[in-house]
From TrEMBL:
Occurrences of domain Carboxylesterase type B (ranges): 1-79
Top-level taxon of the source organism: Eukaryota
UniProt lineage: Eukaryota, Metazoa, Ecdysozoa, Nematoda, Chromadorea
Gene3D superfamilies associated with the record: alpha/beta hydrolase
PANTHER family (UniProt xref): CARBOXYLESTERASE TYPE B DOMAIN-CONTAINING PROTEIN, CARBOXYLIC ESTER HYDROLASE-RELATED
Record's protein name: Carboxylesterase type B domain-containing protein
One Pfam entry name: COesterase
Species for this entry: Teladorsagia circumcincta (Brown stomach worm)
Length: 79
């Protein structure tokens, strides 16, 4: 169902802010500079990166279970 707009997790209202929060949860505080943030995220061990995606799994909503996932590009597909 990846990319299926009828799935609640296929649409996220503020992906940039969600990525900044994810980086900060992983000890990366240089989040206003996208290049530095991405370089720091790439330097994380893959196991830490993957496990930190599951931090929200205890929440009741599927939409909040994994903030980073397939998304629609609203430049081409309107909400």
């Amino acid at each position: 169902m990846a990319g299926n707009a009828s799935c609640s997790w296929a649409i996220h209202n503020d992906m940039v802010e969600e990525c900044r929060k994810f980086a900060e949860r992983n000890g990366i505080h240089e989040t206003r500079d996208s290049k530095k943030m991405i370089d720091a995220l790439r330097a994380l061990p893959s196991s830490k990166f993957a496990l930190s995606l599951m931090d929200n799994m205890g929440k009741p909503s599927v939409a909040s279970s994994c903030a980073v996932g397939p998304r629609l590009d609203f430049d081409f597909i309107p909400k």
